[in-house]
Amino acid sequence: MEFYLINLYFPYLLAFFLAAVTVYFTVPAIIRVAKLKHLYDEPNEERKASKIVVPTLGGVAIFLGFVLAVVLSSFRLEFNELRYIVAALVILLFVGLKDDILYISPKSKLVGQLFVAFILVFFADVRFTNLHGILGIHDIHYWISVPLSMFAIVVLTNSMNLIDGIDGLCSGIGISISMIYALFFYLNEEVDFALLALALAGALVAFFIFNVFGKKNKIFMGDTGSLMVGFLVSIMTVKFNEIPLPDHRLFQILEPPALSVAIMIVPVMDTLRVFTLRILDGRSPFSADRWHTHHQLLDLGLTHFRASLAYISYHFVFVAVALVLQHYITDYKLLIALVALAFAFISITSLLLKRKKEKLEKENELKDNAFNRFFIKLADRH
Question: What is the pLDDT of residues 242-271, one digit of tens each?
Answer without folding.
Answer: 876 555 555 566 667 778 888 888 888 888
